[in-house]
């Protein structure tokens, strides 16, 4: 909580440093005024619903389990798609979970975040999903940031806000006010961002995932920590501990006995030979940027994206030699347009490069990546390379490709709207 307040105070300090007067009036400045949109905790925790197929407002992360694809509708829930026939996928239902951004599945039990809570569902009958358990307040560092489209400084306003409510969004308006210092701890309550064994089967997420299941443990990263849950009893998970990592944590990836954690200023490596007790191995810094990561036996592939809260101005792919886990070394760097998710399959490297589309590289020689294909007429968000096909989501559309020697070929396009 203190770290969150400190971070916001720093942002505001620097924003106010660069303010300029308008209309020659030296007594007033123009601000973005952010007023929280709130919901009572009781309303949040009774809002889960199983609905018929719905239109997609804003597609987010993608997850696959068995013959089903789960696509997040950002902060709203999960679209469930029957992909038994990849050339003709079909929406079958919508799992409404307010504040949802991530899921993970093991042995027909689905784990999903709902703002500060973790919710568990039995999906053994995919057409009759049952909520089994909700763990309250296990993600206390969940933060909803205001979204603004200009460079004006940001002030927060908190009328009628208290600890019985949770912030679920922001209403932004421009307003002229006298230059002022900001007291985040207002009398109305201030700012508060709180309130597998060999026979087991787990699903697979993309590179933007914050949830990762390894055997009997679920690792869920928030902005600062790894939250560790014991899921041996799948329907009644328990939170074991929190492992502090650093600020700006974004993504998590598992390879063998290690977790690779992407943040806005570097990649962290944690040893999980003891699954309940991740041990810091190393950190390699990079420019401030959003930072998903995927890993093969020797290298970590990191896309760095500028803009919004990512910081920085560079859009690049960095390749890091992870042979020595306690001393990773940056090996190569390649300029991109505006990268999001990425994935690897054998010698193919797939990068969702924003308006430049999906790029396919041959990574046999990491010092000299070869672009083998590019699908330009899409704006991809995240990708999952499976054994037999590639799944990609972007612009409220699900794309599926089949592997063809060292390349891929489109097999279906499915509009999520």
TrEMBL record:
Sorted UniProt keywords: Signal
Record keyword Ion transport present: no
Signal keyword on record: yes
Domain of life: Bacteria
InterPro entries in the cross-refs: LVIVD
Signal peptide location: 1-24
PROSITE patterns: PROKAR_LIPOPROTEIN
Protein name, entry field: LVIVD repeat-containing protein
Organism annotation: Flavobacterium alvei
